[in-house]
C-alpha cells in the first residue's frame, strides 16, 4: 500500500513539474512578445506610431485596384511634463498655412489659461461652493459667456488650433498634427528635437479605377457611432479603418501593424519595431473584363437616345459569375445623366426591381415540388378570366405547349393554371378564386431557395431583400407567379440563375478569392453551399431555357455557338402616378451541359406604355449579345 502511495505521489510531483515547465516555456518563448508588450504598456513605456500601410486590393489576375501612396505626416506622442502650449508656438513657426482655431477651440483655450470666475454670478458661485452644481456644469456656464472676451490675433488662433490638435483624444493616442507636408518641413521637425514630436512617412489610400469604387469601399477615421466596436477590437481612436463595403468587410486582413516606440528617460523615443503592412486581398473580379463591359454599356446607353420610347431609360446592370463557386467575376451598373456616366454598382445590392418572366424557372419548381405539373402533357395556351379581374393572357396565343415549351415561349397561361391548382381549385371561366397567405408563402419559400427574396450570402453589408407585396388577392398570386409582384435585387437574380445552372445547389455569392502576405496564402475562399433545391426537375427547366435561346423568346441574346441556356423577362412598373414603364431582364448560363459562367443583364425603364406605339427598344438584347460574346471569348481564351 505504501509503495502505491509513493508512486502516486511521485506521479503528481512529475505532472506538476511538467505543467510548470510547459507554462514557463509558453510564456518565455511562445508568448514572449505578447507579455513583453503588455509589460511595456503597463509601465507606460511604449507608444505606437500611426497606421501601418493597409494591404492592397487586387483583381483575380493580380492587377492592383486599391493601393497606397506615401505622404509625410507630423505626429505627436504626448509624454509627461511636456508644455504643449510652448510646442504649439514652436510649430507655428515651422508649419505653414495652419488652420485657425474654431470658436469652440478658442473658448476652451481661454477657459484653460485665464481666470474666469468673474463670469459666474454670486448665486452660481455659491451653488458651486455648496456642491449644488458640478465643475462640469460651471465650465458649461462659463463657456456660454466667454465669446465676447475673445480677441485673439490670426497667429494666436493658429497656435490655439495647434494646441487643440496636440491635446485632443486620449493621452496615449498618437495625434496627427499635419498631413502631406513637404520633405523640408519634415526634416525641420525631425531636427528640432521637440519631445514627443516626429515626422513619419505614412501612406494614404488610392483607388485606381472609377468602376467598382463604391463596392471596394472607403477608409477613414473611427466615428462616434462605431467607436465602441473598434475599441473592443483593440483599435486606437486615431486609427484609419475600413468604413464601408470590402474595405470594412476585410479590415482585419487589410490593416497592418503599427510601429512601436520605447519612451526613454529623457522623453526621447527609441524604435522597437517597424510598422508592417497589412495583407493583400485578391478579388474574384476580372478588372479588364469589367472595363470592357462598361464600354458596352456606355455605347448602348448612348445608342438608346436615338431609339423610340426610351425617354425614361438611363441605366443598366451586368453581372458575371462562376455558378460552381458563387464568385463574382464582373459586376457593374452605369447611369447616364446628360452626357456623363455615373457608377451605380452598389444598386446591385441595395435596389430591387420587378424581374418579369425571367424567374419562371423558380415558378416551374413550385409546380414540380407540389405535383401540379403533368410532365410532357400538352395544353392549349389561352387566357384566364377570374371574377371581377380583367382577362390575363400570355403576350400572344402560343398554341399547344407542355412544361418545356411553356418556358420556351414564356407562357403566362401555364403559370396561371399552376397557381390556381396550388389553391386546390381547377380553373373555370369567371370563377371566384379564394387565395390565402399560405399560397403566396409557398411561392416565396420556393423562390427563396433560389435566392429570390432571400440573402445571397454576399460578403458585403446592406444587402436588400427586395420588396414583398402585402396584399393578398387572386390576381396578385397570378402576378407573383410570373415575376410581376415582388421585387428582387440584381444579385438575387444572379443567385437564382446560378442555382439553376448547378441543378439546385445554391452557393453564397462573394468577391473575395484569397488573402496573401507577400506570396504566402493566408486564406483561400471555399465555396459555401447555402442550400439545395429539392424535388424540382432541373433537366426539363434547363432544356426549356435552352429552347428559349435557340428558338424561343430569347433568340439572339447569346450566340448558340456558346451552347447557352437562359430566360428573358419583361415587367411593367409604376414609374410615377401617370407613367407605366417597362423593365427588361436576362439571365443565362453556358455551356448548358457543363455551366462555367452565368450572366445577368437588367435594364430598368427601358420603354413606357403610351397610346401611340408599343415599341420596346432592343437595348437589353444588344447588351446581352455583346457581353455574352465578350465573356465566352475572353475568359475561355
CATH superfamily of the largest domain: DD-peptidase/beta-lactamase superfamily
What Rg do the Cα atoms give?
Answer: 33 Å
CATH class value of the largest domain:
Alpha Beta
- Beta-strand portion reads 15-25%
Round the mean pLDDT to the nearest integer and report it.
89
Largest sheet: 7 strands, mixed
The beta-strand count equals 24
What separation lies between the terminal Cα atoms?
A: 82 Å
Would you write up a description of this structure?
It is elongated, with a radius of gyration of 33 Å. Helix 13 packs antiparallel against helix 22, helix 15 runs parallel beside helix 17 and helix 15 packs across helix 18. The chain is an alpha+beta fold. Strands 2, 3, 4, 5, 10, 19 and 20 form a 7-stranded mixed beta sheet that branches. The model has no long low-confidence stretch (mean pLDDT 89). It folds into 2 domains: 189 residues, Penicillin-binding protein 2a (Domain 2) (Alpha-Beta Complex); 348 residues, Beta-lactamase (3-Layer(aba) Sandwich). The longest helix is centred in the first third of the chain and has 29 residues. It has 22 helices and 24 strands.
Amino acid at each position: 500500500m505504501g509503495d502505491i502511495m509513493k508512486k502516486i505521489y511521485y506521479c503528481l510531483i512529475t505532472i506538476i513539474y511538467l505543467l510548470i515547465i510547459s507554462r514557463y516555456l509558453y510564456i518565455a518563448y511562445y508568448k514572449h512578445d505578447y507579455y513583453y508588450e503588455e509589460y511595456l504598456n503597463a509601465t507606460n513605456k511604449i507608444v505606437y506610431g500611426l497606421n501601418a500601410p493597409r494591404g492592397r486590393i487586387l483583381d483575380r489576375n493580380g492587377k492592383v485596384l486599391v493601393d497606397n501612396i506615401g505622404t509625410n505626416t507630423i505626429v505627436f506622442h504626448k509624454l509627461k511634463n511636456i508644455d504643449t502650449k510652448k510646442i504649439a508656438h514652436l510649430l507655428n513657426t515651422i508649419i505653414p498655412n495652419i488652420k485657425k482655431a474654431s470658436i469652440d477651440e478658442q473658448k476652451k483655450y481661454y477657459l484653460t489659461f485665464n481666470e474666469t470666475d468673474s463670469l459666474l454670478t454670486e448665486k452660481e458661485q455659491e451653488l458651486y461652493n455648496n456642491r449644488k452644481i458640478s465643475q462640469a456644469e460651471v465650465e458649461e456656464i462659463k463657456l456660454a459667456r466667454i465669446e465676447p472676451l475673445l480677441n485673439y490675433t490670426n497667429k494666436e488662433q493658429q497656435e490655439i488650433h495647434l494646441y487643440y490638435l496636440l491635446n485632443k483624444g486620449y493621452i496615449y493616442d498618437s495625434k496627427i498634427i499635419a498631413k502631406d507636408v513637404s520633405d523640408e518641413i519634415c526634416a525641420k521637425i525631425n531636427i528640432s528635437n521637440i519631445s514627443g514630436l516626429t515626422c513619419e512617412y505614412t501612406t494614404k489610400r488610392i483607388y485606381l479605377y472609377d468602376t467598382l469604387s463604391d463596392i471596394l469601399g472607403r477608409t477613414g477615421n473611427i466615428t462616434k457611432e462605431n467607436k465602441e466596436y473598434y475599441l473592443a477590437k483593440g483599435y486606437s481612436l486615431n486609427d484609419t479603418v475600413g468604413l464601408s463595403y470590402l474595405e470594412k468587410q476585410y479590415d482585419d486582413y487589410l490593416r497592418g501593424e503599427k510601429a512601436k516606440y520605447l519612451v526613454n528617460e529623457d522623453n526621447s523615443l527609441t524604435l522597437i519595431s517597424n510598422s508592417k503592412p497589412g495583407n493583400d486581398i485578391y478579388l474574384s473580379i476580372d478588372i479588364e473584363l469589367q472595363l470592357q463591359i462598361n464600354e458596352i454599356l456606355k455605347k448602348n446607353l448612348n445608342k438608346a437616345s436615338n431609339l423610340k420610347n426610351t425617354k425614361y431609360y438611363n441605366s443598366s446592370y451586368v453581372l458575371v459569375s462562376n455558378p460552381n463557386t458563387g464568385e463574382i467575376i464582373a459586376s457593374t451598373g452605369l447611369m447616364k445623366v446628360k452626357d456623363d456616366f455615373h457608377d451605380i454598382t452598389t444598386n446591385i445590392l441595395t435596389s430591387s426591381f420587378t424581374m418579369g418572366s425571367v424567374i419562371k424557372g423558380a415558378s416551374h419548381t413550385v409546380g414540380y415540388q407540389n405535383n401540379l405539373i403533368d410532365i410532357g402533357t400538352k395544353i392549349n395556351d389561352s387566357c384566364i378570366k377570374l371574377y371581377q379581374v380583367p382577362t390575363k393572357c400570355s403576350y400572344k396565343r402560343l398554341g399547344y405547349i407542355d412544361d418545356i415549351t411553356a418556358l420556351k415561349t414564356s407562357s403566362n397561361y401555364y403559370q396561371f393554371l399552376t397557381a390556381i391548382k396550388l389553391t386546390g381549385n381547377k380553373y373555370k371561366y369567371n370563377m371566384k378564386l379564394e387565395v390565402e397567405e399560405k399560397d403566396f408563402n409557398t411561392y416565396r419559400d420556393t423562390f427563396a431557395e433560389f435566392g429570390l427574396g432571400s440573402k445571397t450570402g454576399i460578403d458585403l453589408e446592406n444587402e436588400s431583400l427586395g420588396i414583398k407585396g402585402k396584399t393578398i388577392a387572386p390576381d396578385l398570386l397570378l402576378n407573383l407567379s410570373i415575376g410581376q409582384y415582388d421585387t428582387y435585387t440584381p444579385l438575387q437574380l444572379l443567385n437564382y440563375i446560378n442555382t439553376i445552372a448547378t441543378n439546385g445547389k445554391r452557393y453564397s455569392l462573394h468577391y473575395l478569392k484569397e488573402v496573401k502576405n507577400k506570396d504566402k496564402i493566408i486564406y483561400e475562399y471555399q465555396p459555401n453551399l447555402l442550400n439545395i433545391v429539392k424535388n424540382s426537375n432541373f433537366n426539363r427547366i434547363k432544356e426549356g431555357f435552352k429552347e428559349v435561346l435557340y428558338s424561343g423568346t430569347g433568340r439572339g441574346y447569346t450566340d448558340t455557338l456558346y451552347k447557352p441556356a437562359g430566360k428573358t423577362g419583361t415587367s411593367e412598373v409604376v414609374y410615377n402616378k401617370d407613367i407605366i414603364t417597362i423593365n427588361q431582364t436576362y439571365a443565362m448560363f453556358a455551356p448548358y451541359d457543363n455551366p462555367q459562367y452565368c450572366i445577368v443583364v437588367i435594364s430598368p425603364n427601358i420603354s413606357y406604355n403610351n397610346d401611340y406605339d408599343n415599341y420596346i427598344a432592343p437595348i437589353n438584347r444588344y447588351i446581352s449579345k455583346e457581353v455574352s460574346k465578350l465573356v465566352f471569348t475572353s475568359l475561355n481564351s
